[in-house]
Amino acid sequence: MRLAHLLGPDLRDTLAQEPESLVEALDEFHPEDVAEILDDLDIVDAVALMRVLPDDYAADILERLEPDRQVDILKHLGAKDSIPVFAEMAPDDRVDLVQDLPLALSEQLLELLEEQDPEAAEETRELGTHDEETAGGIMTPDVVALGPETKVWKAIEEVRRLSREGEVETISYVYVTAFKGQLVGVLSLRDLILADPSKTLKDVMRENVVRVEIDADQEYVARTIAKYDLNAVPVVNEHGVLRGVVTVDDVVDVMVEEATEDAQKMGGVVPLEEGYFSTGFGEFIWKRAVWLVILFGGQLLTATVMEKHEMTMATLAGLVVFIPLIIATGGNSGAQSSTLIIRALALGEMTPSDWTRVLVRELGIGLSIGVVLGGVGFARAWLVGDDASLQLAITVTLSITAVTTLGTTLGSLLPLLIRRLGFDPAVSSTPFIASLVDVFGLVVYFAIAQTVFSMTF
Amino acid sequence: MRLAHLLGPDLRDTLAQEPESLVEALDEFHPEDVAEILDDLDIVDAVALMRVLPDDYAADILERLEPDRQVDILKHLGAKDSIPVFAEMAPDDRVDLVQDLPLALSEQLLELLEEQDPEAAEETRELGTHDEETAGGIMTPDVVALGPETKVWKAIEEVRRLSREGEVETISYVYVTAFKGQLVGVLSLRDLILADPSKTLKDVMRENVVRVEIDADQEYVARTIAKYDLNAVPVVNEHGVLRGVVTVDDVVDVMVEEATEDAQKMGGVVPLEEGYFSTGFGEFIWKRAVWLVILFGGQLLTATVMEKHEMTMATLAGLVVFIPLIIATGGNSGAQSSTLIIRALALGEMTPSDWTRVLVRELGIGLSIGVVLGGVGFARAWLVGDDASLQLAITVTLSITAVTTLGTTLGSLLPLLIRRLGFDPAVSSTPFIASLVDVFGLVVYFAIAQTVFSMTF
């Protein structure tokens, strides 16, 4: 039976008449797919469905819904009926949900959870103290941690017990911790299955454990997992004590999120919280208007520069014709450089201290490409049009070479400077660089024109 | 002992005098870290080191080196000495390497491999037939596939045997296949450990297996793994027969690679094969020049439009002053739209068939923001400057509103059109959209100016 059909227009009837068979049928589907369909149901049906599902399955689905939808469902269920599902959620997802709930409801839920499972409640409060975009903010505290003297057979027993009791979400590794909880070793589940059951963990563990600190940025965590091809990375506090684990599936989400954020910033948009169609019209307007207005404000300077040179334009025939070409060329070369540098910074390929190497390279590239483009510009300005003159052609050529170089230089140094100042380099967006180069490009163009036309050939 | 020290300046002496102790010391470090250091050694030392390492460890390191470096090392080792390491490589990495090697060397290696391990050689040739950017191109054929009647205890035995013999790289799931190899079920390693050992796989397996087709695009594979939070996704052929598996660590690499490629395309650069500093100067020049020259060619049209309207500009006072402002505003709003749409397409949030919804939205946004910016432009054109006039102010306002809307519309529809035509929408880069809007923007500006100034107020 198709899933969409199961949850189709007859859903209310089925829920009323034979809830058990519906639940049984749903069990064969991946929670992600059920969540997707439940997202499209109206809220009354969605809540009715959540009520009949087993608590752990309902929690599995709830974890996969959009934050707004999660909040809606819990509000409709009420604190009391939410608790069984809330308690079954994975700790990291529970924390995220608590942060999205209205304060009154979240407090009510946490208090109820305290009565039922004080440990989980405390864990949730504790996890909530970490910044959402750090290792602590995305980790789950559920790990298998055993002492170094544990026998291998005993460790396997423990893994089975914890899995069966649902104490740990996913198990890829068993961590070995010393007396005070310091992380001292690691074994993959596969290592464990392969090891001689009578040995102790300290004999078979790997001592050199890749780890991240609890306040490490989530992008760094993602890069670490990617670099070492891990399924999960342990999170430790400043004393090396194991506090949790970040799994690769959370990291994949982080990477998609960060790539989208970066792309949007680079396109001059305040990053959207949700997808294109899920973002409201009003929010859309302001997230785009804010940058457009700022850039527009900056661009007003071009009008001032132009006004200052109205006489020059009136006197020097043909000069005005090449203005759009010249400023756009600078903008394009700046866009390339800033994109390359922002991405290289994101990948950890360079740091702001590499600025001299970058500058040398970008100067060379700007000059080389500038000369080529300048050559084409020369031909256009000398051969075509009524105002064609050698002075004009020389002015255009020199200006194109200059703005291309200006573009590559500004476009590469600005992201490095912004990172150096501790901000996200992606805010030096393509439109931002282009606007900046426009203003400087005009100034350069007029300066070159005045110099060249004052000479005689 | 620090790793950098181990492989430091005394490396040659140590290699000559006590290779065993070096090998033993290295074993405690993650192969990724050893690979990183080996990358910086000169080729003679690197090859000498590879010779003393155990074959499987050397293969582990080789897999993590840059393609150029891999090829260099195999060339120096020679076909004969390369074979033991080559044979130990993971099948997917081996295929990638074969594709990078000079044809003569790769054929020699494959022939030698044939003598030693005919199965591996055939597997390598077979895998090489898939497009590098599809599921088939990134999968490994090493999977644990068992029949539905297999007992759970027997399955665990099999996993242990295959792991121990190094037949499978990583095991997260056991796949259940029918008589002809069709994929019919799946169990995670954890499910297997938890299950009653006397049951058969068909009693405990999950039947609804998330899978991808062998010719699916790697981005789709990555999205599937991310969506369902999997550690690996099985790859099937057109008859549903299991052919291999793509693991999440490969997908993480794919995602980083694709995000970088997209960002570079969007910035108007032909995607680089390697990092910023590893890319040669000549390659850099042409990968950037090609787009800059094309865009420059298009931008030459602006000069033509300007020439056609030299009279207009001479007659209508102050018109020229606002040209940079107007075209830049169109470019900026276009950059925003194209970025948002390209990213939404990459995330699968929309398809080209959504174009009407997109158009309505972008028209609305363009008009709304355009009116705001137009208002500011009105004030600037009416109140400041020698040529201030009501006609000019009206022209500027209408033009700004028009080009903003033009920008959002073109910037959103063009990526959709490009995708619809079967190309990558990311080539409709920010500079590309900006250049297009520049030309149209000028035409619009002059048209509006002529109309407005011909009226009397």
Written overview of the protein:
The structure is a homodimer of 457-residue chains. Chain A is mainly alpha-helical and 457 residues long. Chain A folds into three domains: 3-129, MgtE N-terminal fold (Alpha Horseshoe); 145-257, CBS-domain (Roll); 281-454, Tetracycline Repressor, domain 2, CATH 1.10.357.20. Helix content of chain A is 66%, strand content 6%. Chain A has 22 helices and six strands. Chain A has helices at residues 3-6, 11-17, 19-26, 31-40, 43-52, 55-62, 67-88, 91-100, 103-116, 118-127, 135-138, 152-164, 189-194, 201-204, 218-227, 248-266, 281-308, 310-315, 323-346, 355-383, 390-420, 430-454, and strands spanning 145-146, 173-177, 183-188, 212-213, 232-236, 242-247. In chain A, the strands form two sheets. Chain A has a three-stranded mixed beta sheet. In chain A, strands 4-5-6 form a three-stranded mixed beta sheet. In chain A, α6 (55-62) packs antiparallel against α7, α7 packs across α8 and α8 crosses α10 (118-127). The longest helix of chain A has 31 residues, at 390-420. Chain A is elongated and about 90 Å long. The termini of chain A are far apart. In chain A, 45% of the residues are buried. The model of chain A has no long low-confidence stretch (mean pLDDT 87). Chains A and B meet through α12, α13, α15, α16 and α17 of A and α12, α13, α15, α16 and α17 of B.
